[in-house]
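S1.2 Input.
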Amino acid sequence: MERQLLLLALFCISHAAFHDLSEKVFTFPLDSGTANVKFTANVEQPMTALTVCMRFHSTKTRAQSLFSLAIPSESNAFLLYKPSVGVYRLHVKGTALDINGLPDETGEWNSVCWTWDSTDGLTTLWVNGKRSARKILGRAATLTGSPSIILGQDQDSYGGGFDPNKSFSGDITDVHLWNQVISPCEIRFFMEGNAFTPGNILGWNNLQYTIRGTVHVEKSDFDKLSCY
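S1.3 Output.
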């Protein structure tokens, strides 16, 4: 019994550790209703502004979830979703907005940043250096409660409710989340693979996460990586 408790304690410690995933990717090789990566994020204050940046590589043309943040009262609290090629759907506290006309390169790396501020509801999507028009979404919305942040699946309930037809298949890397709208210069630095200020909620070089199902951590082949 003591040995089992020790092993359990070591297991919990290993999952509580922070990991530097620089030049690494999460690979989702299957169409799956279970495979996901769940991040641990300590958020003490209600969220009224957010920026998420990430890169994804996929050959799929069906609907896919890119980034899913749920709160206890709303599964689509802050959701970045692709219903089809060339269409990005933004959700804030259950309200959706479709963005068209931005790059969406199948079988290539796409760099994405999405900013939102509840004060005036202004939201902007950037993909591969191109910016959408500024739109209004989630004006005066407040995201309260411990966030459930998941890659690879769309949460239709808090921490679950996965649908394999919305799952992500491909590679995801360089995920960062800030509790503010970051500047266009910081976004451009991220897009171009240059040095930028890491996310203060999630930072790719300092992450706590749990993998469920078939997800692999692999070497990145994003074209700005260092090769020796």
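S1.4 Remarks. Confidence is low (pLDDT under 50) at residues 4-15.
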